[in-house]
């Protein structure tokens, strides 16, 4: 369980993760990465604003979590191969993938 | 020393227009279109690459006349892997079954089977042998398919029981030996060992290792080792918490894995673990591996050393350290390289055979260079010497390039296409040597780790031979070439920090240990989606380090060669590629030394527009696509 007592934007993101839901106020659809075209450079992951942090590595793939993606173009701008598309229709993220979200946070657990 | 004339790093991606104006796509086939605006493609057929290999292997095995022939197909993945690698992937019960049922000659058909076992493949490419004590994989989902059934005689069962007993005895002894050695370590030393192994998993290419039926991997499911997916603090990681857990709470697998990985790393660095990719991590196998390395390196057996499975881990640890030292000595004399078997990412270390004569490939390469560059040597070694004597042209405009170094990179890559008969050739490096030198002088490691992909370059040239693999479309070839260039820029981005002191700003950065050894890869068009899409089947990678100021930057430049079809590249090709990349490294070092003296020299060529333009001119008259 992610702590809900953090700064407002972080807390808002934590709520989205906890509820597995997208912010209803976001007008733009989320983005998705086409795996066959992606070169795995993680430029998108590094550029995703921290209040969203919607992009994760899953094995050899780089994946956008639609529930966390506001649809902003930051990742599109830096992608060298233009493999990021608008996802007008998207499926809820599978439960197994949520285990890989939010791993960049420091914990007190041993490494 | 004062900073060199740097200017701004001019290769950052353009900031998005705050009014929301479109940002141009960098994909060559989308020239003039906005990034992110294309119609999404239909999702790629996910059965390409490795799933297709598994299916075709099973089909081939099913077509065989006997169980023995079917097993041969499964063990080699239909000719894509040495059989010995797959044998070493088998769990202990399966190895016992292999010995008992398939070892030695058979008296004839089994008329009244005492047992029938299946032969199949798992989803990781490991053969599956059904044996009396384990008739199915632990999880049904692990089985990609069944190819054959093999009848066993009563004699086979007796032999199996004997072999299995031997394996169990050795496994019990292995666990004892491993736990004894771990208990002998000081707490701080054990903690440091765990931290090092975690670093190895994070900082090198992916692993896939077996203990019995269990897969340990940071490459695909089950994702139970730290890597790109699992951060080191993730509880799913096998190595999580081991330095704080009492050893009494370690599982047997924990103990054996830590010992085996430690022995491997001590014998040859982090990358040594990849020489066990796709196989079981067993102490016997590691001991046998270390002995084989000793023979390969020409070492005499240690006085007093015992052989066999009872050898103490301490003895093996000393052998590992001796191997590491001997290897370092040999690398000054011999060209080491690795073979990579793409389907299971298995690597095998080799020496190249020494040869004094200049081959026809190298002659053709040098002739190609002499037509465009002031390099008249009959061999690459001669050309390197000439460059060191007369290389100032590298710092001036040359041909169509604003910098001679760009011209050298281009013409070397271009000459490689025909000399090696490859579909693509490429070479990467860094654009702004002034920025690098300034940062090195200031020890500004934060600056270096902040650079992004556009601060690096990779010149990728396709041959007309590549067109058939890409539907005869020059635009599709250009997209593939630019994708490769971008990925190589990422590799440069990923390797450079591995050369820096391990300050917090560097440690917190994603990086890999830079490569120092060339390799030749077979059937790499299996797992990485980019490799599947762009038909990266047979390749050579030849990295080189350079000396800049007081620093040695390993893996700073390289040469890569790629065939999408046809025959694999060879050891002979690796040796010539190594000398070719040394030429590029020598040129880069010379330019760096001139920059150190105050000149402002940068590589401006080889961006996406350059690639589109060159490939269109070279291939459009031959292939199809928009002019």
Short synopsis of the structure:
Chain A has 111 residues and is an alpha+beta fold. Helices cover 23% and strands 13% of the residues of chain A.
Structure write-up:
- The complex is a heterodimer of chains A (111) and B (627).
- Chain A is 23% helix and 13% strand.
- Chain A is of the alpha+beta class and 111 residues long.
- Chain A has a two-stranded antiparallel sheet. In chain A, strands 2-3 form a two-stranded antiparallel sheet.
- In chain A, a hairpin with a 2-residue loop joins strand 2 (55-58) and strand 3 (61-64).
- Chain A is globular.
- Chain B has 627 residues and is of the alpha+beta class.
- In chain B, the strands form 3 sheets. A 7-stranded mixed sheet of chain B has the order 7-6-10-11-12-8-9, with helices on both faces. In chain B, strands 2-1-3 form a 3-stranded antiparallel sheet.
- The longest helix of chain B is centred in the N-terminal third of the chain and has 31 residues, at 154-184.
- The radius of gyration of chain B is 27 Å and the shape is globular.
- Classes of the chains: A alpha+beta (111), B alpha+beta (627).
Instruction: Calculate the mean pLDDT score of chain A and round it.
Output: 86
How would the global form of chain B be characterised?
A: globular
Uncertain runs of chain A: 104-111
Into which percentage range does the β-strand content of chain B fall? 5-15%
Write the layout of secondary structure elements.
The complex is a heterodimer of chains A (111) and B (627).
Chain A: H1 8-19, E1 31-33, H2 43-47, E2 55-58, E3 61-64, H3 74-78, E4 84-86, H4 95-98
Antiparallel strand pairs in A: 1-4, 2-3
Chain B: H1 50-62, H2 67-75, H3 83-87, H4 92-102, E1 115-122, E2 127-129, E3 143-152, H5 154-184, H6 187-203, E4 208-211, E5 214-217, H7 252-268, H8 283-296, H9 313-330, E6 336-341, E7 346-351, H10 360-372, H11 380-390, H12 404-419, E8 424-430, H13 433-442, H14 445-450, E9 456-462, H15 474-495, H16 504-507, E10 519-522, H17 529-533, E11 538-548, E12 551-563, H18 571-596, H19 608-619
Helix pairs in contact in B: 1-2, 4-5, 5-7, 6-7, 7-9, 8-9, 10-12, 11-18, 12-18, 15-19
